[in-house]
Design a protein that fits this description.
Number of domains: 2
Mean pLDDT: 92
CATH topology of the largest domain: Dihydrodipicolinate Reductase, domain 2
Radius of gyration: 22 Å
Number of strands: 17
Structural class: alpha/beta
């Protein structure tokens, strides 16, 4: 398995032109050691969408100053810089290229909300420039690069936090403790869900790149796609493998993280498989809108269900308000996690709502929520203390949960198209998997998708070595699986191997 080559040593001028490589001097010109009374200076990268939440969080935080913003869209950047400067009553510097911000920007930490394919590399460059880093979820675009980020953060003693903010919710913290203390008996399985309606992005692609956007920088590690395969430049990149990870790696990463947290697993699953497809309409997107992923941990399985169609075909008249509820929790949001234990069930919504029921469906008292900081505040707390263990969402936690999204998609991309009866025959010895596939098939049927006539992609059960995080023991499948566990990086936007 070929991994990206370790770059040669470069001088600082070359770094700014070609991108930082591991092993360079970390004391860049504006690096400094924080003093006890110093405000922490923050630079935010990617400020069009989710980045606005980063700006809001840091501009309203005591002991923190937002001093720099970076975005490849000059119109967006100008508006955000002016608004942040007005709010704080201090100068805020704008940058089109994050490398220039790392060299010249008056910052101590970096926070990023770029598209997924930039998350890891921006964190790597920040750490190499002597900064702490807050990275939106998923913390990586593929399994391999996420581990390199974790190793670099540890090697350089930097605080690196992921944007899996559910870990900062006191209600979920207490519910996880409740389950892991065995209050409902042994866990039978955990199910994460992203029941979130996503309409077609259309056919024909050929969208316009916004005027003034540096498209080479936007693509970064990914290929320069021309013409665009999507009509809408912003957001719809989520549904293309070069840039995004589908809804499991978009909304679903939050619920994947909570599901793994309940299980207490600190490695990727040794076996992962997927059943799914892009069904219910035809459009230009690549990633599945309907998917069942089965992570076969030894103690208890973790299932993840993505459903991008409404509750039924009738619901397509109002996609946003017609979604299914989880089994056992009628009327509750399907963007959630359900833990099935010997003594009952625990429901956890994306917003932190906790419902506990016994095996007869009778509601029980939920554990009392803990007092917590929000995820941004917690990051700054750790930056000040320099204690990794104080982080709610340390980069390794977010890496592992992101990797579970990636391994599920690896199985999907290696799969073959089968009809319903063929799938049922292959999974007949697993009652839980059969039940969940039947439920997914019924959901599709209510949306006019008949799996006895249409095919769905049945992915192989791929074995992974949880220690190395590579596919092993799959024969001829190892090579294609491992090719999907990393990527061919486009120079100079290369994630370095960290030894």
């Amino acid at each position: 398995m070929k991994t990206p080559d370790k770059p040669n040593s470069l001088d600082r001028r070359q770094v700014l032109k070609y991108g930082a490589g591991f092993g360079l001097a970390l004391a860049w010109p504006n690096s400094r050691v924080l003093g006890a009374n110093d405000d922490i200076r923050v630079g935010v990268i990617g400020v069009n969408g989710r980045g606005q939440a980063h700006i809001s969080a840091f501009t309203g935080m005591k002991g923190v100053r937002l001093t720099a913003l970076c975005d490849i869209d000059p119109t967006v950047l100008d508006a955000r810089v002016n608004a942040a400067a007005d709010k704080q009553k201090i100068a805020v510097q704008g940058y089109a290229d994050m490398r220039e911000m790392f060299e010249k920007g008056d910052i101590d930490v970096m926070s990023t909300a770029t598209p997924n394919h930039w998350h890891t590399l921006s964190g790597v460059w920040a750490i190499q420039a002597g900064k702490d880093a807050y990275l939106e979820k998923p913390i990586s675009h593929n399994v391999w690069e996420g581990r390199q980020l974790v190793k670099l953060a540890r090697k350089e003693g930097k605080i690196c936090q992921g944007g899996t903010q559910s870990r900062a919710l006191g209600s979920i913290q207490s519910a996880v403790q409740f389950v892991r203390e065995g209050k409902l008996g042994k866990i039978k399985y955990v199910k994460g869900m992203c029941y979130k309606a996503r309409q077609s992005i259309g056919l024909g692609g050929n969208g316009e790149i916004p005027e003034g956007v540096n498209y080479d920088l936007w693509c970064g590690p990914a290929e320069l796609e021309s013409p665009l395969r999507r009509k809408r430049f912003h957001y719809d990149w989520h549904w293309f493998y070069a840039y995004g990870n589908g809804d499991m790696g978009n909304q679903g990463i939050h619920q994947m993280d909570v599901a793994r947290w309940y299980l207490g697993e600190d490695k990727i699953a040794p076996r992962s498989m997927s059943i799914g497809g892009r069904l219910g309409y035809e459009d230009d997107a690549e990633t599945p809108n309907t998917q069942l992923v089965y992570h076969d941990y030894d103690e208890a399985p973790l299932l993840f269900e993505t459903r991008g169609l409404p509750e039924s075909k009738a619901g397509q008249e109002n996609w946003a308000k017609s979604m299914e509820s989880p089994d056992h929790f009628e009327g509750e949001s399907g963007v959630a996690v359900v833990v099935a234990c010997e003594g009952g069930f625990v429901y956890t919504s994306a917003g932190g709502k906790i419902i506990v029921k016994d095996t007869d469906g009778k509601e029980m008292p939920a554990p009392e929520a803990f007092e917590t900081e929000n995820n941004f505040e917690n990051f700054i707390t750790a930056v000040k203390s320099r204690k990794v263990e104080e982080q709610y969402a340390d980069c390794e936690e977010t890496h592992l949960s992101s990797a579970l999204c990636h391994t599920g998609l690896i199985s999907h991309r290696l799969g073959a198209a089968l009809k319903k009866d063929e799938v049922l025959e292959k999974i007949k010895d697993d009652a839980l998997l059969t039940d969940r596939f039947t439920s997914m098939s019924d959901h599709l049927g209510r949306n006019g998708v008949d799996l006895t006539k249409e095919s769905i992609v049945f992915g192989p059960m791929v074995k992974f070595n949880p220690e190395t995080e590579w596919a092993e023991g799959n024969g001829e499948l190892d090579a294609p699986a491992n090719a999907l566990a990393t990527r061919e990086y486009r120079a100079p936007f290369t994630v370095p191997e960290v030894l």
